[in-house]
Amino acid sequence: MPDPRNPLIVQSDKSVLLEVDNPLYEDARDSLARFAELVKSPEYVHTYRVTPLSLWNAAAMGMTPSDVISALEEYAKYPIPGNISREIIDYMSRYGMLSLYKEGPDLLLLCDNQDLAEEIGASKKVREFIIDRVDATTFRVDAKQRGFLKYALIEIGHPVEDLAGYIEGEALHFELREKTLSGKDFDLRSYQKDAVAIFHAGGGERGGSGVVVLPCGAGKTMVGIGAMEKLQTSTIILCPNVVAVRQWITELLDKTTLTPDQIGEYTGANKEIRPVTVATYQILTWRESRKAEFEHFGIFEARNWGLIIYDEVHLLPAPVFRVTATIQATRRLGLTATLVREDGKEEDVFSLIGPKRFDMPWKQLEDQGWIATAVCYEIRIDLDDSLRRKYALADDRRKYRIAAENPIKIDIIKKLVEHHKEDNILVIGMYLRQLNQISEAIDAPLITGKTPNDERERLYKAFREGKEKVLVVSKVANFAIDLPDANVAIQVSGTFGSRQEEAQRLGRILRPKTDGSFARFYSIITKDTRDMDFAAKRQLFLTEQGYQYVIASGDEEIWLKPPESFFQQT
Questions:
Q1: Per CATH, the architecture of 98-162 is what?
Q2: pTM for this prediction
Q3: Could you tell me where the beta strands, DSSP code E, fall in 485-528?
Q4: Is the pLDDT at 312 greater than 50, yes or no?
Protein backbone atom coordinates (compact mmCIF):
# COMPACT_ATOMS: atom_id res chain seq x y z
CA MET A 1 0.00 0.00 0.00
CA PRO A 2 1.19 3.59 -0.63
CA ASP A 3 3.05 5.05 2.33
CA PRO A 4 4.45 8.63 2.51
CA ARG A 5 7.61 7.16 4.08
CA ASN A 6 8.32 5.16 0.92
CA PRO A 7 10.95 6.28 -1.62
CA LEU A 8 9.13 5.92 -4.98
CA ILE A 9 6.90 8.29 -6.91
CA VAL A 10 5.34 6.58 -9.95
CA GLN A 11 4.15 9.05 -12.60
CA SER A 12 1.67 8.70 -15.42
CA ASP A 13 4.35 9.21 -18.12
CA LYS A 14 5.96 5.90 -16.98
CA SER A 15 8.79 7.69 -15.18
CA VAL A 16 9.60 6.64 -11.63
CA LEU A 17 11.34 8.94 -9.14
CA LEU A 18 13.46 7.35 -6.42
CA GLU A 19 14.57 9.28 -3.32
CA VAL A 20 18.18 8.52 -2.47
CA ASP A 21 18.04 9.71 1.14
CA ASN A 22 15.55 7.07 2.24
CA PRO A 23 16.08 3.93 4.35
CA LEU A 24 14.41 1.82 1.63
CA TYR A 25 16.47 3.30 -1.21
CA GLU A 26 18.67 0.24 -1.86
CA ASP A 27 15.80 -2.26 -1.72
CA ALA A 28 13.70 -0.14 -4.06
CA ARG A 29 16.63 0.38 -6.45
CA ASP A 30 17.36 -3.35 -6.69
CA SER A 31 13.69 -4.07 -7.32
CA LEU A 32 13.40 -1.39 -10.03
CA ALA A 33 16.49 -2.63 -11.84
CA ARG A 34 14.62 -5.79 -12.84
CA PHE A 35 12.06 -4.00 -15.01
CA ALA A 36 12.99 -0.30 -15.46
CA GLU A 37 15.84 1.69 -17.00
CA LEU A 38 17.79 4.35 -15.12
CA VAL A 39 17.58 7.68 -16.97
CA LYS A 40 19.44 10.09 -14.69
CA SER A 41 20.96 10.07 -11.23
CA PRO A 42 21.68 13.44 -9.62
CA GLU A 43 22.39 13.63 -5.91
CA TYR A 44 18.96 13.35 -4.32
CA VAL A 45 16.37 11.92 -6.73
CA HIS A 46 17.04 9.31 -9.42
CA THR A 47 14.75 8.94 -12.43
CA TYR A 48 13.84 5.56 -13.94
CA ARG A 49 11.60 4.83 -16.89
CA VAL A 50 9.45 1.78 -17.51
CA THR A 51 9.76 0.97 -21.24
CA PRO A 52 8.32 -1.77 -23.46
CA LEU A 53 11.80 -3.30 -23.84
CA SER A 54 12.52 -3.26 -20.10
CA LEU A 55 9.17 -4.99 -19.49
CA TRP A 56 9.77 -7.59 -22.21
CA ASN A 57 13.17 -8.41 -20.74
CA ALA A 58 11.50 -8.78 -17.35
CA ALA A 59 8.88 -11.08 -18.86
CA ALA A 60 11.59 -13.16 -20.52
CA MET A 61 13.20 -13.68 -17.11
CA GLY A 62 9.92 -14.95 -15.69
CA MET A 63 8.41 -11.82 -14.11
CA THR A 64 4.65 -11.33 -14.42
CA PRO A 65 2.71 -8.04 -14.64
CA SER A 66 1.52 -8.59 -11.07
CA ASP A 67 5.17 -8.96 -9.95
CA VAL A 68 6.02 -5.58 -11.47
CA ILE A 69 2.92 -3.81 -10.17
CA SER A 70 3.43 -5.30 -6.69
CA ALA A 71 7.03 -4.09 -6.66
CA LEU A 72 5.94 -0.56 -7.51
CA GLU A 73 3.16 -0.63 -4.92
CA GLU A 74 5.50 -1.93 -2.23
CA TYR A 75 7.72 1.16 -2.43
CA ALA A 76 5.30 3.85 -3.70
CA LYS A 77 4.55 7.02 -1.72
CA TYR A 78 1.31 7.67 -3.56
CA PRO A 79 -1.21 5.54 -5.46
CA ILE A 80 0.07 4.31 -8.82
CA PRO A 81 -1.69 6.06 -11.75
CA GLY A 82 -4.23 3.73 -13.30
CA ASN A 83 -2.75 3.94 -16.78
CA ILE A 84 0.59 2.58 -15.53
CA SER A 85 -0.86 -0.69 -14.30
CA ARG A 86 -2.82 -1.07 -17.55
CA GLU A 87 0.25 -0.42 -19.71
CA ILE A 88 2.41 -2.83 -17.71
CA ILE A 89 -0.20 -5.54 -18.21
CA ASP A 90 -0.58 -4.65 -21.89
CA TYR A 91 3.12 -4.63 -22.77
CA MET A 92 4.12 -7.66 -20.72
CA SER A 93 1.19 -9.70 -22.02
CA ARG A 94 2.46 -9.11 -25.55
CA TYR A 95 5.50 -11.27 -24.80
CA GLY A 96 4.36 -14.74 -25.85
CA MET A 97 1.34 -13.62 -27.90
CA LEU A 98 3.40 -14.30 -31.02
CA SER A 99 5.52 -17.39 -31.45
CA LEU A 100 7.61 -18.93 -34.18
CA TYR A 101 7.75 -22.70 -34.55
CA LYS A 102 8.72 -25.32 -37.12
CA GLU A 103 6.35 -27.74 -38.78
CA GLY A 104 8.32 -29.98 -41.09
CA PRO A 105 10.30 -27.69 -43.41
CA ASP A 106 7.99 -24.74 -42.75
CA LEU A 107 8.50 -21.85 -40.34
CA LEU A 108 5.15 -20.73 -38.92
CA LEU A 109 4.17 -17.57 -37.06
CA LEU A 110 1.36 -18.25 -34.61
CA CYS A 111 -0.75 -15.36 -33.28
CA ASP A 112 -2.61 -15.55 -29.98
CA ASN A 113 -5.87 -14.39 -31.55
CA GLN A 114 -7.38 -13.43 -34.88
CA ASP A 115 -7.38 -9.68 -34.19
CA LEU A 116 -3.64 -9.79 -33.62
CA ALA A 117 -3.22 -11.83 -36.81
CA GLU A 118 -5.10 -9.17 -38.77
CA GLU A 119 -2.80 -6.47 -37.35
CA ILE A 120 0.31 -8.47 -38.21
CA GLY A 121 -0.92 -9.30 -41.71
CA ALA A 122 -1.64 -5.62 -42.39
CA SER A 123 1.81 -4.39 -41.34
CA LYS A 124 3.97 -3.23 -44.24
CA LYS A 125 7.12 -4.02 -42.24
CA VAL A 126 6.08 -7.63 -41.70
CA ARG A 127 4.25 -8.38 -44.94
CA GLU A 128 7.43 -8.94 -47.00
CA PHE A 129 8.38 -11.91 -44.80
CA ILE A 130 5.00 -13.66 -45.05
CA ILE A 131 4.66 -16.43 -47.65
CA ASP A 132 0.98 -17.17 -47.09
CA ARG A 133 -1.73 -17.46 -44.45
CA VAL A 134 -2.32 -20.99 -43.17
CA ASP A 135 -5.41 -20.26 -41.08
CA ALA A 136 -7.05 -17.47 -39.07
CA THR A 137 -4.14 -17.15 -36.63
CA THR A 138 -1.16 -18.68 -38.46
CA PHE A 139 1.19 -17.46 -41.20
CA ARG A 140 3.81 -19.38 -43.13
CA VAL A 141 6.92 -17.14 -43.15
CA ASP A 142 10.29 -17.14 -44.88
CA ALA A 143 12.63 -19.33 -42.78
CA LYS A 144 15.68 -17.63 -44.30
CA GLN A 145 14.44 -14.27 -42.99
CA ARG A 146 13.77 -15.47 -39.42
CA GLY A 147 15.94 -12.80 -37.79
CA PHE A 148 14.70 -9.93 -39.95
CA LEU A 149 11.10 -10.96 -39.24
CA LYS A 150 11.75 -10.91 -35.47
CA TYR A 151 13.25 -7.45 -35.77
CA ALA A 152 10.32 -6.16 -37.84
CA LEU A 153 7.85 -7.49 -35.28
CA ILE A 154 9.54 -5.80 -32.34
CA GLU A 155 9.62 -2.55 -34.35
CA ILE A 156 5.81 -2.61 -34.46
CA GLY A 157 5.63 -3.35 -30.74
CA HIS A 158 5.13 -7.11 -30.79
CA PRO A 159 8.04 -9.23 -29.56
CA VAL A 160 7.94 -12.80 -30.79
CA GLU A 161 8.92 -15.82 -28.76
CA ASP A 162 11.14 -17.95 -30.98
CA LEU A 163 10.31 -21.64 -30.43
CA ALA A 164 11.50 -22.80 -33.84
CA GLY A 165 14.45 -24.68 -32.36
CA TYR A 166 18.06 -24.97 -33.39
CA ILE A 167 20.43 -27.06 -35.41
CA GLU A 168 22.59 -29.24 -33.19
CA GLY A 169 25.91 -28.51 -34.88
CA GLU A 170 28.96 -30.74 -35.01
CA ALA A 171 29.48 -32.76 -31.85
CA LEU A 172 32.45 -31.70 -29.73
CA HIS A 173 33.05 -33.79 -26.63
CA PHE A 174 35.04 -32.34 -23.75
CA GLU A 175 34.82 -31.94 -19.99
CA LEU A 176 35.45 -29.25 -17.41
CA ARG A 177 38.59 -29.90 -15.39
CA GLU A 178 38.33 -30.43 -11.64
CA LYS A 179 41.81 -28.92 -11.35
CA THR A 180 43.29 -26.29 -13.65
CA LEU A 181 46.62 -26.82 -15.39
CA SER A 182 48.30 -24.97 -12.51
CA GLY A 183 46.77 -27.42 -10.03
CA LYS A 184 44.06 -25.15 -8.56
CA ASP A 185 40.61 -26.57 -7.75
CA PHE A 186 38.03 -25.49 -10.31
CA ASP A 187 34.25 -25.50 -10.43
CA LEU A 188 31.67 -23.05 -11.68
CA ARG A 189 30.25 -20.75 -9.00
CA SER A 190 26.61 -21.27 -8.07
CA TYR A 191 25.37 -18.19 -9.95
CA GLN A 192 27.40 -19.18 -13.02
CA LYS A 193 25.74 -22.61 -12.95
CA ASP A 194 22.35 -20.92 -12.63
CA ALA A 195 23.08 -18.70 -15.64
CA VAL A 196 24.13 -21.72 -17.73
CA ALA A 197 21.05 -23.73 -16.69
CA ILE A 198 18.65 -20.88 -17.52
CA PHE A 199 20.29 -20.31 -20.91
CA HIS A 200 20.33 -24.04 -21.71
CA ALA A 201 16.74 -24.67 -20.49
CA GLY A 202 17.23 -28.42 -20.67
CA GLY A 203 18.29 -28.20 -24.30
CA GLY A 204 14.79 -27.27 -25.45
CA GLU A 205 13.56 -24.55 -27.76
CA ARG A 206 12.74 -22.18 -24.88
CA GLY A 207 16.44 -21.84 -24.18
CA GLY A 208 19.44 -21.51 -26.44
CA SER A 209 19.34 -17.79 -27.15
CA GLY A 210 19.70 -14.72 -24.97
CA VAL A 211 21.97 -12.53 -22.90
CA VAL A 212 23.64 -13.08 -19.53
CA VAL A 213 24.47 -9.83 -17.70
CA LEU A 214 27.28 -10.04 -15.14
CA PRO A 215 29.87 -7.48 -14.04
CA CYS A 216 33.47 -7.61 -15.17
CA GLY A 217 35.35 -9.88 -12.81
CA ALA A 218 32.31 -12.05 -12.09
CA GLY A 219 33.30 -14.70 -14.63
CA LYS A 220 31.24 -14.18 -17.78
CA THR A 221 33.85 -16.27 -19.61
CA MET A 222 33.13 -19.16 -17.24
CA VAL A 223 29.42 -18.91 -18.11
CA GLY A 224 30.34 -19.18 -21.78
CA ILE A 225 32.57 -22.19 -21.13
CA GLY A 226 29.80 -23.76 -19.03
CA ALA A 227 27.31 -23.32 -21.89
CA MET A 228 29.79 -24.92 -24.30
CA GLU A 229 30.28 -27.89 -22.00
CA LYS A 230 26.53 -28.30 -21.58
CA LEU A 231 25.89 -28.28 -25.35
CA GLN A 232 28.98 -30.30 -26.45
CA THR A 233 29.02 -28.69 -29.88
CA SER A 234 31.36 -26.74 -32.14
CA THR A 235 31.43 -23.07 -31.19
CA ILE A 236 32.42 -19.65 -32.53
CA ILE A 237 33.39 -17.09 -29.88
CA LEU A 238 33.42 -13.44 -30.99
CA CYS A 239 35.51 -10.94 -28.97
CA PRO A 240 36.27 -7.21 -29.03
CA ASN A 241 40.06 -7.53 -29.50
CA VAL A 242 43.02 -9.88 -29.95
CA VAL A 243 43.99 -9.84 -26.28
CA ALA A 244 40.49 -11.02 -25.38
CA VAL A 245 40.73 -13.77 -28.02
CA ARG A 246 43.93 -15.09 -26.49
CA GLN A 247 42.54 -14.88 -22.97
CA TRP A 248 39.57 -17.02 -24.03
CA ILE A 249 41.94 -19.57 -25.53
CA THR A 250 44.06 -19.60 -22.36
CA GLU A 251 40.98 -20.12 -20.19
CA LEU A 252 39.63 -22.90 -22.41
CA LEU A 253 42.92 -24.79 -22.25
CA ASP A 254 43.30 -24.18 -18.52
CA LYS A 255 39.79 -25.21 -17.45
CA THR A 256 38.62 -27.77 -20.00
CA THR A 257 39.98 -30.92 -21.63
CA LEU A 258 40.00 -29.21 -25.03
CA THR A 259 43.40 -29.49 -26.71
CA PRO A 260 45.32 -26.81 -28.63
CA ASP A 261 44.57 -28.47 -31.98
CA GLN A 262 40.82 -28.12 -31.26
CA ILE A 263 40.94 -24.35 -30.70
CA GLY A 264 41.63 -21.83 -33.46
CA GLU A 265 42.48 -18.12 -33.38
CA TYR A 266 40.86 -16.12 -36.17
CA THR A 267 42.40 -12.64 -36.12
CA GLY A 268 44.47 -10.39 -38.33
CA ALA A 269 47.52 -12.44 -37.42
CA ASN A 270 46.05 -15.97 -37.67
CA LYS A 271 43.19 -17.50 -39.65
CA GLU A 272 42.57 -20.87 -38.00
CA ILE A 273 39.13 -22.49 -38.21
CA ARG A 274 38.79 -25.34 -35.74
CA PRO A 275 35.98 -26.95 -33.68
CA VAL A 276 36.26 -23.97 -31.31
CA THR A 277 37.17 -20.79 -33.19
CA VAL A 278 37.77 -17.51 -31.38
CA ALA A 279 37.59 -14.39 -33.57
CA THR A 280 37.54 -10.61 -33.23
CA TYR A 281 34.70 -8.35 -34.32
CA GLN A 282 37.35 -6.31 -36.11
CA ILE A 283 38.44 -9.08 -38.46
CA LEU A 284 34.85 -10.03 -39.26
CA THR A 285 33.96 -6.47 -40.24
CA TRP A 286 37.11 -5.87 -42.29
CA ARG A 287 36.67 -5.26 -46.01
CA GLU A 288 38.76 -3.65 -48.73
CA SER A 289 36.32 -0.78 -49.29
CA ARG A 290 32.93 0.44 -48.14
CA LYS A 291 31.31 -1.20 -51.17
CA ALA A 292 33.20 -4.50 -50.91
CA GLU A 293 31.86 -7.68 -49.33
CA PHE A 294 32.77 -8.72 -45.79
CA GLU A 295 35.02 -11.53 -46.92
CA HIS A 296 35.53 -13.03 -43.45
CA PHE A 297 31.82 -13.67 -42.95
CA GLY A 298 32.56 -17.00 -44.60
CA ILE A 299 33.62 -18.19 -41.15
CA PHE A 300 29.93 -18.64 -40.28
CA GLU A 301 29.57 -21.18 -43.09
CA ALA A 302 32.94 -22.88 -42.57
CA ARG A 303 31.60 -25.49 -40.13
CA ASN A 304 28.28 -26.70 -38.81
CA TRP A 305 28.42 -24.52 -35.71
CA GLY A 306 26.12 -25.36 -32.80
CA LEU A 307 26.75 -22.23 -30.67
CA ILE A 308 27.89 -18.65 -31.17
CA ILE A 309 29.09 -16.68 -28.13
CA TYR A 310 29.12 -12.89 -28.40
CA ASP A 311 31.53 -11.55 -25.77
CA GLU A 312 30.79 -7.93 -24.81
CA VAL A 313 27.58 -8.16 -26.85
CA HIS A 314 26.83 -4.47 -26.25
CA LEU A 315 29.72 -3.70 -28.64
CA LEU A 316 28.40 -5.87 -31.45
CA PRO A 317 28.97 -3.99 -34.76
CA ALA A 318 26.02 -3.43 -37.08
CA PRO A 319 27.39 -5.73 -39.84
CA VAL A 320 27.60 -8.63 -37.36
CA PHE A 321 24.00 -7.91 -36.34
CA ARG A 322 23.03 -8.32 -39.97
CA VAL A 323 24.76 -11.66 -40.37
CA THR A 324 23.30 -12.77 -37.02
CA ALA A 325 19.86 -12.18 -38.47
CA THR A 326 20.59 -14.89 -41.06
CA ILE A 327 21.77 -17.56 -38.58
CA GLN A 328 18.86 -17.71 -36.16
CA ALA A 329 18.86 -21.52 -36.23
CA THR A 330 22.19 -21.48 -34.35
CA ARG A 331 22.17 -21.11 -30.56
CA ARG A 332 23.38 -17.66 -29.49
CA LEU A 333 24.72 -16.50 -26.13
CA GLY A 334 25.48 -12.84 -25.44
CA LEU A 335 27.73 -11.89 -22.51
CA THR A 336 27.93 -8.34 -21.17
CA ALA A 337 28.23 -6.16 -18.09
CA THR A 338 25.54 -3.76 -19.35
CA LEU A 339 22.75 -3.95 -21.91
CA VAL A 340 23.13 -0.22 -22.60
CA ARG A 341 24.30 0.48 -26.15
CA GLU A 342 25.51 3.96 -27.02
CA ASP A 343 23.78 3.66 -30.42
CA GLY A 344 20.44 2.91 -28.76
CA LYS A 345 20.09 -0.45 -30.50
CA GLU A 346 19.16 -2.50 -27.43
CA GLU A 347 16.14 -3.80 -29.41
CA ASP A 348 18.55 -5.35 -31.93
CA VAL A 349 20.15 -7.38 -29.15
CA PHE A 350 16.71 -8.49 -27.91
CA SER A 351 15.54 -9.48 -31.41
CA LEU A 352 18.64 -11.11 -32.87
CA ILE A 353 20.65 -12.45 -29.92
CA GLY A 354 17.73 -12.94 -27.54
CA PRO A 355 16.22 -11.43 -24.39
CA LYS A 356 18.01 -11.03 -21.08
CA ARG A 357 18.00 -14.47 -19.47
CA PHE A 358 20.02 -13.84 -16.31
CA ASP A 359 21.58 -11.02 -14.38
CA MET A 360 22.95 -10.45 -10.90
CA PRO A 361 23.60 -7.04 -9.33
CA TRP A 362 27.20 -6.00 -8.81
CA LYS A 363 26.56 -5.14 -5.17
CA GLN A 364 25.12 -8.58 -4.50
CA LEU A 365 28.24 -10.23 -5.91
CA GLU A 366 30.36 -7.80 -3.92
CA ASP A 367 28.53 -8.70 -0.71
CA GLN A 368 29.20 -12.39 -1.40
CA GLY A 369 32.91 -11.74 -1.98
CA TRP A 370 32.97 -12.66 -5.66
CA ILE A 371 34.09 -9.17 -6.72
CA ALA A 372 36.05 -6.54 -4.81
CA THR A 373 34.37 -3.81 -2.77
CA ALA A 374 34.89 -0.55 -4.65
CA VAL A 375 34.86 3.10 -3.63
CA CYS A 376 34.28 5.60 -6.46
CA TYR A 377 35.70 9.11 -6.22
CA GLU A 378 35.10 12.13 -8.42
CA ILE A 379 37.86 14.70 -7.99
CA ARG A 380 36.82 18.09 -9.39
CA ILE A 381 39.50 20.57 -10.37
CA ASP A 382 39.52 24.05 -11.90
CA LEU A 383 40.31 24.66 -15.53
CA ASP A 384 43.89 25.86 -15.93
CA ASP A 385 43.94 29.66 -16.27
CA SER A 386 45.85 29.47 -19.55
CA LEU A 387 42.96 27.57 -21.17
CA ARG A 388 39.95 29.62 -20.06
CA ARG A 389 39.73 31.85 -23.12
CA LYS A 390 40.50 28.99 -25.48
CA TYR A 391 37.71 26.96 -23.88
CA ALA A 392 35.20 29.82 -24.09
CA LEU A 393 35.74 30.24 -27.85
CA ALA A 394 35.76 26.55 -28.79
CA ASP A 395 32.86 24.50 -30.22
CA ASP A 396 31.28 21.83 -28.00
CA ARG A 397 33.43 18.92 -29.16
CA ARG A 398 36.62 20.92 -28.80
CA LYS A 399 35.46 22.18 -25.40
CA TYR A 400 35.38 18.62 -24.09
CA ARG A 401 38.89 17.85 -25.26
CA ILE A 402 40.32 21.04 -23.76
CA ALA A 403 38.67 20.26 -20.42
CA ALA A 404 39.62 16.57 -20.54
CA GLU A 405 43.28 17.40 -21.22
CA ASN A 406 43.45 20.00 -18.43
CA PRO A 407 47.16 19.88 -17.40
CA ILE A 408 46.25 20.25 -13.72
CA LYS A 409 45.09 16.63 -13.91
CA ILE A 410 48.72 15.51 -14.12
CA ASP A 411 49.45 17.09 -10.73
CA ILE A 412 46.59 15.11 -9.18
CA ILE A 413 47.74 11.91 -10.89
CA LYS A 414 51.24 12.32 -9.44
CA LYS A 415 49.78 12.68 -5.92
CA LEU A 416 47.55 9.63 -6.40
CA VAL A 417 50.37 7.47 -7.76
CA GLU A 418 52.63 8.49 -4.87
CA HIS A 419 49.91 7.75 -2.32
CA HIS A 420 49.19 4.36 -3.91
CA LYS A 421 52.81 3.39 -4.63
CA GLU A 422 52.27 -0.03 -3.01
CA ASP A 423 49.15 -0.67 -5.12
CA ASN A 424 48.63 -1.79 -8.71
CA ILE A 425 47.46 1.21 -10.71
CA LEU A 426 45.86 1.72 -14.12
CA VAL A 427 45.74 5.28 -15.48
CA ILE A 428 43.09 5.29 -18.21
CA GLY A 429 42.28 7.91 -20.86
CA MET A 430 41.41 8.41 -24.51
CA TYR A 431 43.66 11.19 -25.86
CA LEU A 432 47.10 9.94 -26.91
CA ARG A 433 48.88 13.27 -26.43
CA GLN A 434 47.61 13.47 -22.87
CA LEU A 435 48.53 9.83 -22.18
CA ASN A 436 52.06 10.35 -23.49
CA GLN A 437 52.47 13.34 -21.18
CA ILE A 438 51.19 11.32 -18.21
CA SER A 439 53.45 8.39 -19.08
CA GLU A 440 56.48 10.66 -19.05
CA ALA A 441 55.39 12.54 -15.91
CA ILE A 442 55.01 9.39 -13.77
CA ASP A 443 57.62 7.28 -15.61
CA ALA A 444 55.21 4.44 -16.44
CA PRO A 445 54.82 2.39 -19.64
CA LEU A 446 52.07 3.34 -22.09
CA ILE A 447 49.79 0.94 -23.97
CA THR A 448 47.73 2.26 -26.91
CA GLY A 449 46.20 0.89 -30.08
CA LYS A 450 49.59 1.31 -31.75
CA THR A 451 51.33 -0.95 -29.24
CA PRO A 452 52.00 -4.36 -30.89
CA ASN A 453 49.98 -7.20 -29.38
CA ASP A 454 53.09 -9.04 -28.22
CA GLU A 455 54.33 -5.92 -26.39
CA ARG A 456 50.88 -5.40 -24.83
CA GLU A 457 50.85 -8.95 -23.54
CA ARG A 458 54.42 -8.58 -22.19
CA LEU A 459 53.43 -5.45 -20.23
CA TYR A 460 50.19 -7.00 -18.95
CA LYS A 461 52.20 -10.04 -17.81
CA ALA A 462 54.74 -7.78 -16.04
CA PHE A 463 51.86 -5.99 -14.32
CA ARG A 464 50.28 -9.27 -13.20
CA GLU A 465 53.64 -10.42 -11.82
CA GLY A 466 54.23 -7.16 -9.94
CA LYS A 467 57.22 -6.11 -12.06
CA GLU A 468 55.26 -3.06 -13.24
CA LYS A 469 53.11 -1.31 -10.63
CA VAL A 470 51.60 1.34 -12.93
CA LEU A 471 50.33 1.16 -16.51
CA VAL A 472 49.04 4.09 -18.56
CA VAL A 473 46.44 2.73 -20.97
CA SER A 474 44.17 4.02 -23.72
CA LYS A 475 40.76 2.64 -24.68
CA VAL A 476 42.37 -0.66 -25.72
CA ALA A 477 42.37 -1.69 -22.06
CA ASN A 478 38.64 -1.11 -21.62
CA PHE A 479 37.68 -4.59 -22.67
CA ALA A 480 38.36 -8.13 -21.51
CA ILE A 481 41.78 -7.56 -19.99
CA ASP A 482 42.51 -9.94 -17.12
CA LEU A 483 44.51 -7.98 -14.56
CA PRO A 484 43.34 -9.55 -11.29
CA ASP A 485 45.64 -7.57 -9.00
CA ALA A 486 44.74 -4.12 -10.32
CA ASN A 487 43.13 -2.31 -7.39
CA VAL A 488 43.35 1.38 -8.34
CA ALA A 489 42.04 2.99 -11.54
CA ILE A 490 42.54 6.67 -12.36
CA GLN A 491 40.30 7.89 -15.18
CA VAL A 492 41.43 11.11 -16.86
CA SER A 493 39.26 11.19 -19.99
CA GLY A 494 36.50 9.10 -21.52
CA THR A 495 34.25 8.67 -24.52
CA PHE A 496 31.69 11.47 -24.20
CA GLY A 497 29.70 10.06 -21.30
CA SER A 498 29.77 6.40 -22.33
CA ARG A 499 28.12 4.17 -19.71
CA GLN A 500 29.57 1.11 -21.49
CA GLU A 501 33.04 2.48 -20.97
CA GLU A 502 32.43 3.23 -17.30
CA ALA A 503 31.33 -0.37 -16.82
CA GLN A 504 34.46 -1.74 -18.41
CA ARG A 505 36.86 0.62 -16.66
CA LEU A 506 35.44 -0.07 -13.23
CA GLY A 507 35.52 -3.74 -14.11
CA ARG A 508 39.28 -3.63 -14.52
CA ILE A 509 39.69 -3.36 -10.73
CA LEU A 510 36.83 -5.53 -9.49
CA ARG A 511 38.54 -8.91 -9.37
CA PRO A 512 38.39 -9.99 -5.71
CA LYS A 513 41.61 -9.18 -3.82
CA THR A 514 43.40 -11.94 -1.94
CA ASP A 515 43.79 -9.63 1.07
CA GLY A 516 40.15 -8.44 0.96
CA SER A 517 41.20 -4.83 0.33
CA PHE A 518 39.07 -2.16 -1.33
CA ALA A 519 39.33 -1.23 -4.99
CA ARG A 520 39.45 2.51 -5.72
CA PHE A 521 38.13 4.16 -8.85
CA TYR A 522 39.10 7.82 -9.32
CA SER A 523 37.68 10.09 -12.02
CA ILE A 524 39.47 13.44 -12.38
CA ILE A 525 37.02 15.99 -13.76
CA THR A 526 37.37 19.64 -14.79
CA LYS A 527 34.45 21.30 -13.05
CA ASP A 528 31.95 23.62 -14.74
CA THR A 529 32.89 22.28 -18.19
CA ARG A 530 31.73 19.70 -20.71
CA ASP A 531 34.02 17.25 -18.91
CA MET A 532 31.71 17.44 -15.88
CA ASP A 533 28.58 17.14 -18.04
CA PHE A 534 29.82 13.87 -19.57
CA ALA A 535 30.96 12.58 -16.18
CA ALA A 536 27.37 12.93 -14.97
CA LYS A 537 26.21 10.67 -17.81
CA ARG A 538 28.87 8.06 -17.04
CA GLN A 539 27.89 8.13 -13.39
CA LEU A 540 24.52 6.70 -14.42
CA PHE A 541 26.13 3.31 -14.79
CA LEU A 542 27.67 3.35 -11.32
CA THR A 543 24.34 4.37 -9.83
CA GLU A 544 22.58 1.53 -11.67
CA GLN A 545 24.93 -0.89 -9.97
CA GLY A 546 24.54 0.60 -6.50
CA TYR A 547 27.76 2.60 -6.25
CA GLN A 548 27.83 6.17 -5.02
CA TYR A 549 30.42 8.74 -5.94
CA VAL A 550 32.42 10.49 -3.25
CA ILE A 551 32.79 14.00 -4.70
CA ALA A 552 35.59 16.34 -3.62
CA SER A 553 37.88 19.05 -4.94
CA GLY A 554 41.52 18.36 -5.68
CA ASP A 555 42.82 20.32 -2.71
CA GLU A 556 40.82 18.16 -0.28
CA GLU A 557 43.16 15.20 -0.95
CA ILE A 558 40.29 12.83 -0.37
CA TRP A 559 42.48 9.83 -1.20
CA LEU A 560 44.13 10.21 2.21
CA LYS A 561 40.91 9.22 4.00
CA PRO A 562 40.31 5.49 4.63
CA PRO A 563 37.67 4.07 2.25
CA GLU A 564 35.73 2.58 5.16
CA SER A 565 34.81 6.10 6.32
CA PHE A 566 32.74 6.70 3.20
CA PHE A 567 30.64 3.60 3.80
CA GLN A 568 29.96 4.88 7.30
CA GLN A 569 28.76 8.18 5.85
CA THR A 570 26.44 6.54 3.31
A1: 2-Layer Sandwich (3.30)
A2: 0.80
A3: 488-491, 519-526
A4: yes
